[in-house]
Each structure stands twice: as structure tokens, then as C-alpha cells.
Amino acid sequence: MDLTPLDIRKKKEDLRRSVRGYDVSQVDAFLDLVAERMEKLVRIEVRLSEQVDLLREQLTAFQERERALNEALVTAQELREEARAQAEKAADLRIREAEQTADDVTRQAQAAVDSSRQALRQLRLRRAGFLRALRGTLERFLDEVGEEELELKAEESDLDEISPSGEKPGDEAPEE
After folding, report:
1. How far is Cα 108 from Cα 125, in angstroms, rounded to an integer?
2. From CA 56, how far away is CA 60, in angstroms rounded?
3. Cα 79 vs. chain centroid, distance in angstroms?
4. In whole angstroms, what is the distance from residue 161 CA to residue 152 CA?
5. DSSP line for 1-70
6. What is the C-alpha separation between 125 and 133, in angstroms, rounded?
7. What is the pLDDT of residue 27?
8. How far apart are CA 138 and CA 118, in angstroms?
């Protein structure tokens, strides 16, 4: 499935909103960040693809030159061997340079992909840590709310024990 930055941006409208769901602004911000990073990667991929196409065209041009040189050198036997050797050396050097350049571009692209993957892993780890911290905070709040409820129940039971005259059962009025 191809996923484009536009698909990510449109996903904001497709996701259902719920009361207990994720924070909409955080999800929107994260989707924007993902879309921006994806756009950057797409631009890099396009640029690298164009560079590879250019290198292929250069390689084709070099190969066509080699063929033309070989055909022209057939007419002159003595010059043919010398010119052919030179043309082969030049073509081999250019091919090696083109291959080296293509290898360099491929390595750079792979390094960029690896870097992006590492950044994504780091973001996922941060997210998991944040969610653990949030869960801990929510659990502490729930514990505090539970304690408050117990205290309120205890206070209510103390109030129930007080008689309408304001005395607790078992308290006796002083004799006069």
C-alpha cells in the first residue's frame, strides 16, 4: 500500500473522535510531523532517482561512444588496437567512476533511511515512556480519588452517628 503525506494529512478527518481518545492536537501534530518527514523522504527519493537516471544516461552515452570508437577503428588496423585499448581504459574508468558515484549515492540514501528509522525508533521509545509515565500519574490520581472517597464515607458515617440534638450516641447529658 502506497502512503503519501497527503494520505496522512487526510487521515485526521477520517479518525473518529471520542471522549477518552488521544489528545486531538497531539495526534494532529504527530501526523503533521510524520507527513513532513515523509515529504522530505519522498523528495530525497525523487532526487536520488533523478541522479540514478542521469548516471544511467551517462553510462549509456559512454557505452555508445565506445561502440562508435570501435567501429571507426576497424578501418585503421594499426591505429585500431591502440585506440581501442585507450577507449576501453577510458570507458572502464568512466564506468568505474559512474559505479562509484552510484554506490556513493546508494550508501548516502541508505544512511538517510537508517537515520530516519533510528529517529522513528527513538520517537517510539519516547512515546512508550511518556505513556508509561502518564499511566503512572493516572494511577496515582485514581489512588488519591479512592482515598478521598473513603475519607468522605468515613465523614458521612461520623455525621450519621451524631444525633439530631448534636450529641453522639452514648454521650449523656450532664445532670443538673
Report:
1. 25
2. 6
3. 60
4. 14
5. ----HHHHHHHHHHSPP-TTS--HHHHHHHHHHHHHHHHHHHHHHHHHHHHHHHHHHHHHHHHHHHHHHH
6. 12
7. 79
8. 30
Give the span between the Cα atoms of 20 and 14, in whole angstroms. Answer: 17
Amino acid at 14: D
Higher pLDDT, 17 or 146: 146
What the block records as the C-alpha cell of 79 is 591505429
* Residues 66 and 93: beta-carbon distance below 8 Å: no
116: Cβ–Cβ under 8 A, 6 or more apart, which residues? Answer: 37, 41
pTM, 2 dp: 0.34
Instruction: Report the C-alpha gap between 34 and 8 in whole angstroms.
Output: 8
Identify the CA nearest to 69 among candidates 82, 56, 59: 82
> What are the pLDDT digits (tens) for 70-118?
777 667 666 667 777 888 899 899 999 999 999 999 999 999 999 999 9
Residues across the chain: 176
The pLDDT value given to residue 154: 86
Do 41 and 5 contact (CB within 8 A), yes or no? no
Cβ pair 94, 64 in contact under 8 A? no
User: For the chain, what is the radius of gyration of the CA atoms?
Assistant: 38
